[in-house]
Structure formats: C-alpha cells, structure tokens
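=== Structure Prediction Worksheet ===
Name of assembly: unnamed complex
Input type: mixed (protein and possibly other molecules)
Chain count: two
Listed entries:
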Amino acid sequence: MTGPILAVSNLSVDLEREGRSRRVVDDVSFALAPGEVLGLVGEAGSGKSVLARALVRAVSTPLEIAAGKVVFEGKDILSLPPRALSAIRGNRIGFIGANPMGSLDPRLPIGQQIVEKLRCVRPGIGRAEARDKVLDLLARVRIPSPGARFHEAPFQFSGGMMQRVMIVDALVSDPSLVIADNITQPLDVTVAAQIIRLIDGLRQSLDTAFLFISSSLPVVAQIAERTLVMQRGRIVEEGRTAEIAARPRQSYTRALISRIPSIWKDVTAPAAREGEAVLTVDNVMRSYLVRRRGSFNAYNEVKAVRDVSFTVKAGENFGIVGESGCGKSTLTRLLAWLEQPDGGRIAFLGKDLSHLSARSLTEMRRSFQLLLQDPYGSLPSGMPLQRMIEEPLLIHGVGRAEAAKRAQEAMAEVGLDMELADRLPVGLSAGQRQRINIARALVLKPRLLILDETLSALDQVEQAELLDLFNRLQATHGFSYVFISHDLALVRRMCHRIAVMYLGRIVELADNSTLFEQPHHPYTRALLSAMPTLEDNRFPRPRYLLDGEPPSPIDLPLGCSFRSRCPRAQGDCEKTDPPLLALAGGNYAACLHRHEAPHEEEAVHVE
Amino acid sequence: MADIAHENVAPRPAAKRGVTPTRRMLQIAAARTDFRIGLVGFAMLVGLAILLPLVSPVDPIKIAYGSKLLPPFPAEGWKWPYLLGTDQLGRDVLMRCLVGLRYSLLIGITTVVLMFVVGCSLGLYAGFRGGWVDAVIMRLTDAQLSIPMIILAITILGVSRPTVPAIILVLGLSGWPLYARVARSVALGERSRGYVLGERVLGASDLRIMLLFVAPVVLPPIAFVAVLDIARMMIFESILGFLGLGVQPPTPTFGNVIADARKYLLNAWWIATMPGVFMLVSLTCLNLMGSALERARNAVLRGEA
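=== Predicted Assembly ===
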C-alpha cells in the first residue's frame, strides 16, 4: 500500500469582487490513491471547476487561493517556485476540459500540437520518439487510422473524436493524475458512453488516477469508485459511489438523487390517446447543397431529412428524439414552416401548408408556435417585457388596448410577476425567459406548440416547474405538444408517442411504454443503453452500446443506413433500405429483422 | 429539497446589468477626457458658427477696399475692429471663416447622414435577405468602390453646377458602399439569431423584423464610427472647394478661401492660415470624439466593460 499521490487539506479559494470577498471553495480536504478514479459531483456554481483549477494553481486575479495545502507526489503545489510548478502541470498532471474545440490551435494539425506539447514538458524526448508515442496513444483511444488523422486539423474532427484527442493530449506525458472536468457534457449520450468506457479501459492499463468532475451523479457513477459531493464550495459527503447512490446521508445528496428522473423503476408511462389529427407529416424530404471542398462549382447533397411521416393528434404529446446530426433541427424548421420541404407534405388541421397563400399562412401561423432552445438569444434585448408579449398580437392586427389586456392575462397565466412588465429582459433567469416565450406563444391561442429543446438550458428545478406549467396549459387550452429533444428522461415523462431519428430518418415510432420497455430497433436500444442512470439499465452496455460514429450524410451507404453499426446486419440489409414497417399495437420500426428483438432480450436474461 | 429550491433563486448581481450596450458605450466614452475636450471644443465652434454671423453686423461678402489686408493685430489706439484681420478685398476673415465652417459642417454632416441612411438600409436589406438580392447589392458596392472619388466629383460637378445639394450627392454617392458593407456583415450574423426566428414563427413580416428588431441592434455601433467620417467629409468638401468644384464664390468656404489666398501667403499669411486653423481645431475635436466612441465600442465588444 503506497500513500496517496494527491492529498488536499483545508483548501480554500476566495473570489474578490468590488472590494468584497466571497469564499467559493471552502475548507476542502481529500486524498487520491494511485490509479483511483475519484468522482466530484455538484450542481452548477458549486465550485467544482474552481477547485479543479486551484489544484494545479491555475487561478487568476478575481480568484485567490486563501489557505490550504495541495500535496502532489510529496510536493506542495501551492508553494512551489514557478519553474518546478511547470514541471508538474501538464506533465505529471493532465487536464481535459469540456470544450475540446477551443483547446487546440485551429490552424495546426493535431499531431503536431500534441508532439509540441510533449516536447515542451519533456525537453529530453526526441521528435521521432514523441511522434511514435502520440501515434500509439491515438490508436489506443481508438481513433480510426491514426496515421492519417495525425495530420488533420481540429475542424476535421467530430466532437467525440476531438474529446479523444484531448484525452491523448492529457495522457501523452504519462501523468499520474488526470483532471477531467465535465468532459462528457458537450457530447451525445452514445458518444459520451463510449468515452467513459474508453477512460475506464485506459486507466486500468495505464495506472493513472483520475479526478472525474461532473454535474450529474449517474455519469460519475459509471466510472468512479469513490465520490465527493460538493455544495456551495464545501464537500458535504464523501464515500463509495454505490453507497452514496443507494444510501445518501446528507439532505443535499438526497435532493440531488431525488431530482434524477427514473426511467424504468416506478414509472407510469403516459398512455397513447385518441383524437383528431392536428399535424400530418407525409414523406417529408429536405436536402441541402453544400459546396464540395476544394472545388469551384461542385456540390454535395446532404440529405438532412429523409422520408419522414407521422401524425400528431389533438391533446397529444409527441416526442422526437435523436442525437446531434440526425436531422432534428431541420425537421423543427420544417414543422414551424421556416423552410419548405423539397418533397412530401405537411398539413395542419387538414390544410396543406404549401398550398396556402401568404395571407392565410400568416393567419395559420397563429395556431402553431415554436419555442426555441436558447432562452437568451431568442428574446429581443431592447424591448420591455409586456411589449414583447403584445408583439405577436400587434403582428396579427389586434388593437393596442386589447393586446395589453391579453398580454397581462398571459403573464399571469405563465406565472410572471406583473412588476416585471416594464422591465427589459436583461438579468432575468433562463426559466423566466422561457416563460416569456411561452406567454408570447400563448397569447395567439395556438393549437400546437413545438418545443425545440426548450428545456435543455434549464436546471432540474426550473424544468420541473415548466413541465407542470405545460401540463396545466394543456388541461385548460387543449394544446398538442411536439417535444424535440435529446433528453430521453424528459420524453419518458411527458410524451404519449415517440419517434426516434437516425440520419434524417425515423427508425422507430412507438408508444411510450413500448419504446422504453420493448424497443424493436437496435438503435433505440443503443440509445437507451447509453443513458447514464443510477438504476439498473434494462439494456446493459456491453451488449447494446454501439461503436463508431454515424456515417456522413453526404454519402450514405446503400441499403439500410444503420447497417454499418448494426449488430443484426445481414446480407439483405445491404440491398433494401427498410421503410417504417408496422408492428403490433400501431407501432413501427424501420428494420428488416425487427422481430428478432424479443430473442435478443431472452439471450441477455439467460446470460 | 426546499433549501435547494431556495438556492436556485439566490440573488444574482442584476443591479448593474440593466443597461443596453449602446448606453454603456456612451457612458464609457463620456468618462474619457479626450471625448470631453472634443465635445466642448466642437460645441463652442458650432455655437460660434451658427450664432455670430446671425448677430454680427459685419457682412462676410461686403467688399471694402479701404480696409484691405489688415493684419490680425490691434490697430492704433487698441481698437480691434477685425479680430483676425481682413483679406485682399477688405472682408472680415473671422466672419468668412465662420461662414466657411457653416458650409463645411452642413455638407459634412448631411453627407454622412445620407451615406449612413442609404448605405445602412441597402446593407441591412442585403444581409437580411441574402441570396440574389445580396449578390446584386454587393456587386453594386464593388462597382461604386472601383471609381475614384475625386474623378467622380470632377466629372459630375464639372458637368453640372456645383450647388450644395450636388456636392452632398457626389460625396454621399462615393461613401455609401462602406456603410453597406459593414451593415450587411452585421445583419448577416443577426439573421439567424433566435429572436429573428422567433418573430418569423409569430408571423412577422421581414420589414417589421428588420426595422423593429434588427436595426436597433445593428445601427448604433456603426453610427458611432460615422462621427469620424464627418471629419473626412469636411476635408473632402474643402478639397473640392480648393479645386474650384465646391460652393462657388462669393460664398466663402474653407477651400475657396485658401485657394484665393495662396497668392498672398507671403505678405498676408493670415488670410489662408485662419481657415486652416479653424479646420484643424474642428477636425481635431471631431476626431477626438470619434476615436473615443470607437474605443468605447471596442471595449464593450470585447466585454471589458
């Protein structure tokens, strides 16, 4: 038994602003053994990132380390001379951040940058040797054809691949400690799950200790043996991760856990309901022309939405889920009629939108409204609140007095304080801003609300409040909702029927309980298995998680576009691209071998 | 749960944030000494130029051979009828300078306003609409930028009579493409912002979105930089006057006064020098204000303030 490689005792960091100082990291002590993975959980603003920076003394002016000791491999980092510090930072301690794209120089090949970094922290190493080492690590983080990608610039990498490059960058100097600050946050669930699996494999082979920081306990629970829970700069709970998840001792930890929505345990799925069709989408296509790189007049066709059909009924919540690049945003723009489809038809209340005149389209716009994702950019900054909510009514020719009256009613209905009426939106919270957006849609008395990741910028408490508001509005006004989201837990809680998109296409369309309990398409299963949960995942990762990344939408493979990653792929998948095929109970899956699903599950249970 | 809910509504430092970027720019600029000096000097000059010719009995174009070429010094007995002396035809230099400054300012400011209005509205429209509208307007600016301004001015003002509106038109014509370019580039970025999409979804027309929402965001920063252009246009006005293409004599302008007084530079230096000094001072004041505004704008854009 060796001693800890990192021992932090009574570390405090102050934030100085306008002559007052506030303690953002308060009397933190912990230790980290060699090769251990320690999790650090806390909600936004609890001081996690400041702590991570303080550990390597990378805090600057408004922040100041007030007290404490950080002993790394026997040396106190906080009292080292600068030269000795730079021999440790980036060399013995690696750092991976949440913004992989911003961490490298966009002009230089990634390989060159990592070699340079290595030769900077280890002046003794030769150019060729450094190169070999980087290539070796690029292969070990499973970047395909590392020899070629060594010479590519950062913009040629996807987010997940870039995060792997950052892992190489952190590991290249054989550090004994790596600080990973929120590294899965910008990634899609399946890619994040791949990265976690990768780190887990690496630390077993490299014997590197990790400090794994995240705002989500389920994410940390996938990898860390021990976990620290941080609240307002203090460590409030420390223990084995499984122990904390199962039997939290502190009220704060309990509250954190209670806010994690459960997916399978004790969930009553909203049951599908009948009603007249509000929105009908028939075989909608949309593609974009993108200039081919290095050519003057040649274009590539990107098929963003391919052959999508579904119906939303009155009073129904319809969910559309998928990862980035699956065509969700394009579909949103089509549904909101901000763009016209190339083929197919979108009908609202039985009227084909492309056949409407400009005037009746404007009239029709009153009845379907879109709520955008970004609560900050989606409001005009120089307009008082009430005027902003009157705006849609003024557009549609309602008189000023009437508009003011209805705006005030709407403000009351969404829970905005009347005192805010004359204020500008600066300084309002994200939740209040989304309430304004809801009020703006509400005054038009729409039939359908399209929610494009509307809640993803909000924290759990605000999300829950707004979901209650949505339910209340649905009960009083009879709205239908289309939830477009990557958040499976949200969709599980709210939606009656759900469509899963992959590469511009709906691969599965089913009611809530079928989709989460017996999904038929292998991609749906992969999505569910990648979801970080504290409960037992119904679809264990070793069996269902996918490798690799989706093919480029520019040159789609012939046949089924999922077959390159599909565990069920057979010869006929190369020839036929399956449309949505009917299953029992009005559900659909776009898979030729959809009836194999139950057998797969049995096989898992037998194992 | 309760303590967490409470924590989330914890007070945020909203006290100082309720100011629009435009207001902040003005505040930063107004706090700078160079801006204050420029503002005070410029206000004094403008006040003089507007008021003094109105109240003074001296006529700037009345010829009086009896008192020609008097130097700007007190005459015998410490009387000082001509503060800055008289010119070769006995006209009061101070009064001629002030009238010249009037024309200079009139032409400079109206030209910039014209350029700003034409350039920004075309640029805004091009950037906001995109597509072929954008292509056509931008090729127009390219064509306009490829014609040297002085050549254009000589051609137009040489053929037609050089009246004040004609001069304003010529100067404005040569200046608008720059404004169109800048306005377009900003509008292009603004076009895909959330609030524009939001307005579209609500059913607003393009014109409404442009005037009510995009213009207030795009235009103020450009307007600040336009202050520097007033100085540039005043110089161009004098150049045209010097070449004989500006406002015609007997109306005095900086350009034609200096052109006429060149011949007397050795024995009556003040006739040509005084308009030059007036121009120097007013341009310095304008540039001080303009550069202070630009620095304030950069500070706000960089997020320093």
